[in-house]
Amino acid sequence: MGGAVLEVEGVTRRFGSVVANDEVGLRVRPGEVVGLLGHNGAGKTTLVSQVVGLLRPNGGSIRVAGVDVIADPATARRCVALQPQAQAPLDGLTPRAAIEIAGRLRGLSKGKARAAAHALADELDIREWFDRRATPDGGGLSGGVRRLTAFAMAAVAPVPLVILDEPTNDVDAARRRRLWETVRRLGDDGAGVLLVTHNVVEAERVVDELVVLDRGRVVVAGSPSRLRGTSDDYLRLELSLHPDGDDPSESSIDVPIPITRRVRAGRRVLLTLSAADAEAAVAWATTLRTHERIEGYALAPVTLEDAYLAATADAAAITEEATDA
Ligand SMILES: Nc1ncnc2c1ncn2[C@@H]1O[C@H](COP(=O)(O)OP(=O)(O)OP(=O)(O)O)[C@@H](O)[C@H]1O
Q1: Which terminal residue of the chain, N or C, has fewer Cβ atoms less than 10 Å from its own Cβ?
Q2: pLDDT tens for residues 108-152?
Q3: Membrane-spanning regions, if any (predicted)?
Q4: 233 alpha carbon to ligand 1 midpoint, in Å?
């Protein structure tokens, strides 16, 4: 319906008393990169396992390229390329062979599989290791090159839906950037991409839509700009606290400016305030630093990470409260 390559509606999956997915709904259209974000244990992998037919939902429906995954898992599976979170078993193979085999299994001719593997090796800058064999003891290839090879295996042939589960784990910064560019290209070439990640900051660069899961439920969904809280009218003041130091923003009475959102993440406190109060905020933070009540501060535009942390406020590490001064 609506041409979506992935339609998840009301999916619930329990493991005993744990509700790993609770009435989850999301949609990926052709050409769209959708980020699925959430802390550890939020239910991301459980959802992916159901989309590829490895787990059956307790309730709800999943369609891939119009095919009902529960009624016809084999046909649906052929419409999806998955890079799993666990490292791919490459033992005994070179990246060249692994990527070419993946292309052949997806129906490419020998020549096309070879050409696509070469192109990806260049795109991801892994030529140096293209003909090096992975050994069963985990040697031969680094974790990062194994991860990039697994990504290339998922990206080698055109397919309606590509699912990438933490594709940048172990990958160095320069190649991560290349990988993100390739993810964007997959979308621009017409695939729908579901990108599972913890990395909000990097995901922001490539995704069209974001779905945030928290304890099995979708807590926020929308474009990055919508989630960020949009406009330039707001700024974020980040206070870095001393180890064991008190938090000078804890009581709204002590804060001389109106704060629309306050999020505590470890020793960082993120305060959202009106851009009109920037000068007063800097004056206050400078005084706090001069009196050594904080280690430092930074004033910057509101980021997606702020919105993500607020949406998922994890009781143990993060507390959120609205303080209307
Ligand atoms: N096979 C299973 N048996 C029992 N509980 C499970 C099983 N798989 C997942 N869970 C539980 O379901 C919840 C969601 O787990 P899931 O692995 O889907 O989260 P996740 O968001 O992928 O986490 P991570 O980012 O750490 O990979 C967790 O509470 C987890 O302990």
Answers
A1: N
A2: 999 999 999 999 999 999 999 998 888 877 677 888 999 999 999
A3: none
A4: 38
Regarding the beta carbon of 44 and ligand 1, being less than 6 Å apart is answered: yes
Contacts of 160 (CB under 8 A, 6+ apart): 5, 30, 64, 65, 79, 80, 191, 192
Class in CATH terms, 229-321: alpha beta
Instruction: Decide if 95 contacts 129 (C-beta within 8 A).
Output: yes
Residue nearest atom 14 of ligand 1, based on CA coordinates = 43
For ligand 1, whether the C-beta of 251 sits within 6 Å is: no
Please name the residue whose Cα sits nearest to atom 1 of ligand 1: 15
Q: What share of the chain is helix, strand, coil (3-state, %, to 5)?
A: 35, 30, 40
**pLDDT tens digit string along 50-64?**
999 999 999 999 999
| DSSP run (H or E) holding 300 | strand 296-301
DSSP assigned state of 71 = T
Q: Do domains 6-227 and 229-321 have the same CATH topology?
A: no
CA–centroid distance, 216 to ligand 1, in Å, is 9
Angstrom distance (rounded) from CA 19 to CA 178: 36
Residue keyed to tokens 């989850």: 24
Q: How far is the CA of 12 from the centre of ligand 1 (A)?
A: 13
Parse the chain into domains and list their residue ranges. Answer: 6-227, 229-321
Two tokens, residue 66: 């119009």
Q: Which residue has the tokens 């090159």?
A: 145
